[in-house]
Amino acid sequence: MHTSARHFIDGLLESGIDYLFSNLGTDHVTLVDELAQAQLEGRAAPQVVLCPHENVAIHMAGGYAAVTGRGQGVMVHVDAGTANAAMGLHNLMRARLPVLLMAGKSPFSLHGELPGARDNYVHYVQDPFDIGSLVRPYVKWEYNLPSGVVAKEVLRRAHTVMHSEPAGPVYLTLPRETLIEPWPADRVRSYPAERYGPAQQGNLPPEAVQQVARSLMQARHPLVITSYLGRKPEAVQALEALALLCGIRVVEFSPSWLCISRESPCFFGFDPTPFLPDTDLGLLLDIDVPWLPHATQPREDTHWLHIDVDPIKKDFPMWGFASDARWPADCTTSLHAIHEAVESLADEAFHARVRERMRSWPDQHTQRRARWASAAAEAGGTDALNPAWVCAALGRRLAPEDVVINEGIRNSPAVMQIPRSLPMSFLGGAGGGLGYSAGMALGVKLARPHSRVVHIEGDGGFHFSTPSSVYAVSQSYGLPIFTVVLDNGGWQAVKEAVLRVHPTGGAAKTNQFFARWPGESRRYDKVAEAFGAHGEWVRHADEMEPALDRCFAALEAGRSVVLVASVAKI
């Protein structure tokens, strides 16, 4: 006879969950005991990564899943931990990242009738009527473990749902009495992935393959707009091969993964607006928002085709981008099939048209790079450094296999100009919750220990990231990351939003946007130093290169790094 908690731990391993990013509480007593017993006996169990705040735990799981495709477990304390993880769960849901969020549940027995019954004041106050309501908008599935006899079956179901496309988070609650109840091993069945695994995304129908292929061959100025196609590395190569074959411009709009090499002749930046007037055929590939309609409008006669893991955007209450055909399909297999169809149909006249269309592209790329170089040329003044200049200085030091995570928000255009060429070498946020990039960086570093992981955020994002928890985890588990804080003294996004709607209103007249931190400059680097990280505060241009030298030396020595660049204030 073993406790349900032991069967549950075995079920986690059987489901491919190797890590539990955890912030534990009184509801986890039997799990804690069984994990310790497994360690004592030398039995296999998921590795527990203790995170002092749930924001770090949930985003670590997200970063790990982003570069491996393998969802892991996050263990939090009842409703309080669930609430702290909810913002991160929103981010993971929008990024379609699998994660199993597990929360303990206050005991349901009040008088000692069962082992694990209530024995603490908090068991009364942490028992809401509907704990799942805290995260229901952000999960594909939720369940309460009713009995340990089905522990492995429940975990298999959770694993299957979170990995089935479109992937996403799931939520499971674990009553204390249920975890402590005993069950003989022969009563708790296993459910192998070979027979109970996730569903795969379907292929593009053959008639659709032919339709897209013929449309591409007839188009004069085809355009692809994408954002998260790069979550599958093989899709990146498939997109570039098709773009080269057909002479397609590719734009990444608000990318959450690198979708095409920035060095590709088919890469045309991050804004589709300049190309929409010429576009006669547009392909929307794995993208939620291809442009902002209030400022950008395509031609009325442009023919749009949409291939996406979720082309109807079922989790968006309102969504409206017209397309002449849309298919739920895997972009990797779809692009390969379209490539084969084009090759079988193409003649020399088609290849000649493609060569002619691409003839002027090198000059356009040269002009685009010159504009970027010009934007990054001026360093800026004291406490008013140019973010583009800062990012360019950093970019010159990075290797192709390094990973850059973008949380620059209003400074994202500067971050996205950092040269990137390999799949998984660039990640961005898909949700609206700030404070994600540091936790994701830790998760990426755990999954890719030999890569340098750099995340770039604003001072607002630094506050939201629960930094003391970030650098405590980094120190405890030997996960050195490089943090760059573009410190503009507040929330630039708030100020810009006010001015867009009320350009001559009271806020504009008084310069009062309630978005700038009052008082003196904050020393974010000192927060990290308290947990063994190396800190730098750069206020003048001539301080940057020596600071970067020290930062990369510290990173190579196994310490996390925080470089605060004092950029122009809002």
In short:
With 570 residues, this protein is an alpha/beta fold.
Structure overview:
The chain has three domains: 195 residues, Thiamin diphosphate (ThDP)-binding fold, Pyr/PP domains (Rossmann fold, 3-Layer(aba) Sandwich); 154 residues, TPP-binding domain (Rossmann fold, 3-Layer(aba) Sandwich); 201 residues, 3-Layer(aba) Sandwich (Rossmann fold). 40% of the residues lie in helices and 16% in strands. It is built from 22 helices and 21 strands. The chain has a six-stranded parallel sheet, with helices on both faces. The chain has a six-stranded parallel sheet with strand order 17-16-18-19-21-20, sandwiched between helices. Strands 10-9-11-12-13 form a five-stranded parallel sheet, covered by helices on one side. Helix 3 runs parallel beside helix 4 and helix 13 crosses helix 14.
